[in-house]
Amino acid sequence: MQPRFAIRTILLALLAACTAGLVAPPPARAAENGPVIPDFFDPNRRLDRPAAGSVGSIRFTTTDDFPPFSFPGPDGQPAGFNVDLARAICNELEVPCTIQVRPFDGLLDTVAAGRVDAAIAGIAITPDSRAKVAFSDVYLRPAARFVARRAEATKPIGPDALAGRKVAVVKGSAHEAFLAALFPKAERIGFDTGADAEAALKNGSVDLLFGDGVRLAFWLQSEPAGGCCAFAGGPYLEPHFFGEGLAIALPPDRTDLRRAIDWALDSLYDKGVFAELYLRYFPVGYF
Predict the structure, then answer these.
(1) What does the pLDDT look like over 102-141, one tens digit per residue?
(2) What would the pLDDT profile of 166-214 be if each residue is shown by its tens digit?
(3) Which intervals hold domain Solute-binding protein family 3/N-terminal (predicted)?
(4) 13-141+243-281 against 144-236: fold identical
(5) 72-79, long-range: CB < 8 A, 24+ apart
(6) Could you tell me which residues come within 8 angstroms of residue 24 by beta carbon, excluding any fewer than 6 positions away?
């Protein structure tokens, strides 16, 4: 199966490029008394609204095993952040659309062959996938985060600040590789699963946990976490470790549709619709 987020070879040059071990966060704005809303859209770019009739209808496809982005709703119909975003795109373009669930395996070839108009399913943006399909603008990116117990969440995070501190991380993950490259003085404590790493932080056997921001955001608000912990430092978005992000995959010859979707994404952000969807599905934001 193709990975949802591509993990590329670690580049030693990142060590020099990342001052103080921190990767710059995305442009973002804070919702009133709430999480930060990530912003990956260029405010200086002006896209032309598609001409009426240039896009007739859109056949979207997604998966049902990628929560909170796509999963079966209570009525069995597709639900999730990606599903609602696809519907919002169609509303903004004022075109009808359908959303069909397909298995992730083979989805890239399905899009490339034009059997669907667009896939909003976390297909990794890689040189191989770019050779087969086109992609919209990136609308969301994976972010890695540190989590600490609440009493220690305000302590500084940096290569020297973490010297000798125990940091839980899942063995063999991109997060472990990032930690080794950017925070080499930290004492990495490897765990087989994210749940084991979370339990270690809660019971105090490690000082910090480093992992996927989405997973950790949901854990922080869960009953097992019990309000023990909070985000500290970050976010960390380096694509060489964590992938280029979420974009919509389209057949390579559908330039008209790609431009229309890019315009709709930009417009949805400007109108606050993107922020509304983000807060609906990520009440504890991961940026």
Answers:
(1) 999 999 999 999 999 999 999 999 999 999 999 999 999 9
(2) 999 999 999 999 999 999 999 999 999 999 999 999 999 999 999 999 9
(3) 57-285
(4) yes
(5) none
(6) 237
144-236 has which fold? D-Maltodextrin-Binding Protein; domain 2 (3.40.190)
Closest residue by Cα to residue 234 from 7, 18, 12, 4: 18
Report angle CA 39, 126, 123 to the nearest 5 degrees.
Answer: 70
Q: Tokens standing for 236?
A: 């960390």
User: CB burial class (10 A; 0-12, 13-18, 19+) of residue 116?
Assistant: buried
Residue 221 DSSP class? T
* Residue in the block written with tokens 């030693």: 12
Q: Are 123 and 129 in contact (CB under 8 A)?
A: yes
Give, rounded to a whole angstrom, the gap between the first and last alpha carbons of the chain.
28
Cβ within 8 Å of residue 203, ≥6 positions away: none
Q: What is the pTM of this model?
A: 0.85
Tokens of 64: 């049902």
CB 133 within 8 A of CB 115: no
Question: What pLDDT was estimated at residue 44?
Answer: 77
Neighbour count for residue 224 (Cβ, 10 Å): 10
Farthest-apart Cα atoms in the chain, separation: 62
Fold of 13-141+243-281: D-Maltodextrin-Binding Protein; domain 2 (3.40.190)
Residues 124, 6: contact at Cβ < 8 Å?
Answer: yes
Q: Say how many CA atoms lie within 13 Å of 77 toward its Cβ.
A: 5
Question: Domain limits of the chain?
Answer: 13-141+243-281, 144-236
